[in-house]
Design brief:
344 residues; alpha/beta; seven-stranded parallel sheet; binds coproporphyrinogen III
Length: 344
């Protein structure tokens, strides 16, 4: 029988010998191997070619042996199913962003198999490649998507530059249309995640990076209902779910009620307090500040150990950062963090 990977045990709050570790955005520009590929290909080409996306996913696996791989893709790829044309520079650029309720009405519904035909092949490539590089207990493949609210932020504002004020204004001026937009986005996310699940991923992470910019009342009214629906439908497939919500300590009690198996907290939240509040309802993932990886490797090792020492021994915990790895992060510190967890 296949050994259950540490990540899956931690997600189920089962006792484990040590916490699993992986890092959000573990593939990308801080790695020379990635930058070398970027000399020849655009980011979208890397995402859309099964061979290249497989290679990029494996780069951090080969370099650091974390306890999980995360599919190389982007939360905006499924926008093409709505007829939104995406590009990256390196931040997202949408040729036809949502500006009016008419734009919401005009969104298309193109089957995800047509717009992301590469996803299934990347996952099946990874399923056969990963055992060559990871021990059974570290062999888990994470698929992911954005959350409805965070994707709506990008569909309207495209960049975080103005803290998505345009999205909040749209929601206030055209609430009915905004809810329709969320519904259309949610359907596409669900199709995208089901495609990944059918292709064989072991767990799902939903990125609600911008959840925290909403006051709680608006969060509960706008962002929460489609997220709950999404989680409920994905859970029917019996796949563990990690929910990452940025700057969300004011939302934490509601996040614990979503049914997500793990809540991924950012660096502004107190890890010990999160364990206490979670009371075993969900495991916790996080939350070293990505900027701290610019400290020396010795310092990173200390900081990582301090973080690990905060966990109650009987709680499900996944060591990670509080947000994605920053560009130019020293590779030696990434290695120091991962090795420190693995030596526990
Ligand atoms: O973790 C991994 O290894 C998987 C890779 C991954 C990418 N994007 C690759 C990427 C993941 C999990 C994402 C998710 C994603 N994309 C999120 C949620 C997580 C978060 O950070 O909040 C968001 C908000 C996006 C949208 C997005 N894509 C932004 C804001 C940017 C610009 C980022 C930047 O650092 O400038 C992208 C582009 C992007 N996505 C890059 C990579 C490697 C850089 C593109 C390049 O190489 O030019």
């Amino acid at each position: 029988m296949k050994d259950t990977p540490l990540l899956i045990k931690a997600l189920k709050n089962e006792a484990i010998e040590r916490p699993p570790v992986w890092l959000m955005r573990q593939a990308g520009r801080y790695m020379k191997e990635y930058r070398d590929l970027k000399e020849k290909y655009t980011f979208l080409e890397l995402c859309q070619s099964p061979e290249l996306a497989t290679e990029v996913t494996l780069q951090p696996i080969k370099a650091f042996s974390p306890d999980a791989a995360i599919l190389f893709a982007d939360i905006l790829l499924p926008f093409t199913s709505l007829g939104l044309e995406i590009d990256f520079n390196p931040g997202p650029v949408i040729q036809n962003p949502i500006r009016t309720p008419e734009d919401v009405n005009a969104l298309k519904q193109i089957p995800i198999e047509k717009t992301c035909p590469f996803t299934q092949k990347i996952i099946s490539n990874l399923k056969s490649e990963l055992p060559n590089y990871l021990e059974p207990k570290s062999n888990a493949l994470i698929g992911f998507s954005g959350a409805p609210w965070t994707l709506a932020c990008y569909a309207i504002d495209q960049t975080p530059y103005k803290h998505f004020a345009g999205t909040k204004v749209f929601a206030a001026k055209h609430k009915k249309s905004f809810i329709e937009l969320l519904d259309k986005i949610t359907q596409v996310i669900e199709d995208y995640l089901l495609l990944q699940i059918e292709a064989g991923i072991d767990a799902v992470q939903i990125f609600d990076s911008w959840a925290g910019i909403l006051p709680k009342e608006q969060y509960l009214e706008l962002a929460y209902p489609p997220l709950l629906r999404l989680i409920e439908n994905i859970k029917k497939k019996n796949i563990p779910i990690i929910l990452y919500s940025g700057s969300s300590s004011h939302l934490f009690d509601s996040l614990l009620e979503t049914g997500a198996d793990s809540i991924s907290i950012d660096s502004t939240q107190d890890l010990s307090a999160a364990f206490k509040l979670a009371k075993g309802k969900a495991s916790i993932q996080g939350n070293l500040d990505p900027a701290l990886l610019f400290s020396s490797p010795e310092e990173v090792e200390k900081l990582t150990q301090n973080m690990l020492d905060l966990r109650p021994k009987d709680a499900g915990y996944i060591a990670n950062l509080g947000h994605g790895i920053l560009q130019k992060t020293p590779v030696s510190s990434v290695k120091a963090m991962i090795d420190c967890v693995k030596n526990n």
